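Reviewers of the previous submission asked for a worked example of the structure-prediction workflow described in the proposal, so we include one complete record here. The input consisted solely of the amino acid sequence. No template or homolog information was supplied to the procedure at any stage.
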Amino acid sequence: MDDRPTPHLIELFDNQVDRFPDETALIVDGARISYRELRDRARTLAAQLVGAGVNPGDTVACRMAGRADTLAAALAALAAGAAYAAMDPAMPEYRIGQMLANLQPAVILADGESTTSGAATVVNPPAPGAEPATEWPDGWRQVDGDSTFHIVYTSGTTGTSRGVLIPHRAVINRLQWMWETYPFQSGDTAVWHKSAALVASPWEMFGALLQGVPTLAVEHETVLDPQALWRTLTEVGATHFLAAPALLAGLAEEAAADPARPCRLRFLSTSAESISPELVHTLHARFPRAVVVNMYGLSECASNVTVYDTAALAPSASKVPIGRPISGCSVLVVDGRLRPVPIGVEGEMLVSGACLATGYLGEDELTAKRFITVDPGDGQTVRMYRTGDRARLLPSGALEYAGRTDDQVQVRGFRVELGDVQAALELHPEVSKAVVRSVSGADGTELTAFLEGDSVDLADVRAFMQQTVPQFMLPSRYLVLQRIPLTASGKVDMAALDELESGPATADEEAHVAPRTATEEMIAGVWTKALRRESVGVHDVFFDIGGQSLMAARIMSQLRGSFGLALPIRLLFDHPTVAELAAIVDQRLHEELKSMQSGG
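From that input alone, the workflow returned the following structure tokens.
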């Protein structure tokens, strides 16, 4: 265990500002923000927070749309001695309302693009050109490693998000481990693309920043478009990129399609969900200079707990291990009675060390149930977190992930409790009972909702869910049943649901218009295959019939190849029906033909 004292992030940041005041700290939309400019902005915000009554130990909710303002807001809250809780701009207002009610923040930091509610004081960032503060407040000197750094929300089982309290100690341990194990080099540029609301975001926000290395902020829309992402990373010369396997796969495809672009990527990391051996080998082939690591973690352990360097993966491997614990962390694999199991035997993973969260905000009973005291066999009791994840210890000493002990699933890198989605569905007045199942497909894990009700309007249910839960929790498919099938003992008959799910996806289809032109036929065919449907109407809205952002990126990539046109992913968001998208494609094909004729 690492017993070093926990330095405060503001102190670490100041060290870099003093060393590199005029060097680039952050790149946003082509603009470069220096260390000095970022500190001025953060200090001014910190002074506003203190002036609004923020004290050490308080919580500041951050609702900033811009990356630079988000980073300055986090620094400002930490400088005031407070914890910050970032609100993802894409999160439905209903969900944000739940979070704010749980947080009871002293202040909400919000820009002009954010709406707020509740009784908390709202502070807006200073206007451009405002006189910057010249000093930090003293609040940050009054906190220690056990004080809360930030609060992140994860899926619960009752329809309400859980707030996880992440201490300074856990964040700094993760940063120091990475700096020492995979140190930055002169000329590096790291990428920040994750929402600041996610537990993994501190590494992207602060990892390079606190080492004098520029951070490239990439907006969500660019990340979803593999072609635009590849172009952005290569133009800036990015070296470090952490992403879910699906994003890395898209990047590898673009690298293969456009090999002439100079690529400086030398560190790739994934941890959101399982990565296949095939993708690992592809990444090594496409990016031969890069270290590719597979990591395992979860919110209650400040993101990452174990790491595996995939250079050691055998060509014939059927699984990619999750590796060994990082510095300051330990993992124990146990049986149902919390006794260590032998090598090769599956058991539940328990995690201990500097990475552990303090617990769940306002949920003492759940905290006591999940964060337990265990004797690992040496007579010393240790505080450990019950992950609910199963694993086995391999003879090599690495861990191999083996699934869950409960109904939690991973959807596009997010851990989702199926009960959370079910509870949200049952809030709809027309739904008397809901059951949600998960299925693995080409685009990852998807959710199917089985609904019981006398007169369920699926269009209304879809709209309701879009306003209630984040996009990654939206079912891809809805099936309305007269009754949810039950076994003789009164439990949900999962086998019967499996039979219904494997049937044609027509139960939630309303009257639709079939494709009328060759272009519509082409687009509808791609959609039908991706969405696993028998048919798609030309007026069906992509995101209403199970479409999601990563699937959209794959579809638009396929359509670019089919039509030979530059079709950015934004087109599908702006024109989300077959008819609308086909009209755009036909127009561009006509313009290209006209251009060729005039040129000839």
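Residues 505-510 have pLDDT under 50 and may be disordered. We consider this example representative of the routine output the project will generate in years two and three.
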